[in-house]
Design a protein that fits this description.
With 75 residues, this protein is of the alpha+beta class. It has a domain at 14-63. The chain has two helices and three strands. The chain has helices spanning 38-50, 52-63, and strands at 12-17, 20-25, 30-34. It has a three-stranded antiparallel β-sheet, with helices on one face. A hairpin with a 4-residue loop joins strand 2 and strand 3 (30-34). The chain starts with 11 loop residues before the first strand and ends in a 12-residue tail after the last helix.
Length: 75
């Protein structure tokens, strides 16, 4: 996660996979924009649920101009 100028609520993160892009709401762990292949959607949403607290903490950090912490990838 990183801060990009113009980021805005709701708390979310962007996903990039090949030519696909998507946005996931951190609070609901749901896809709110874009598209990914079915398998990748399942993996991303499972990862988001496992790391929801960390993602919210990172969101708060970046919204306050601070560096986010690293979050473990899905294994």
């Amino acid at each position: 996660m990183y801060f990009a100028p113009g980021e805005h609520p709701p708390p979310h993160f962007h996903v990039y996979y090949a030519e696909y892009t998507a946005t996931v709401d951190i609070r609901t762990c749901e896809l709110i924009e874009g598209n990914l292949p079915k398998k990748q959607i399942k993996l991303v949403l499972a990862w988001a649920e496992l790391h929801q607290e960390e993602l919210m903490h990172d969101w708060d950090l970046v919204m306050n101009g601070k560096e986010p912490l690293k979050i473990q990838p899905l294994q």
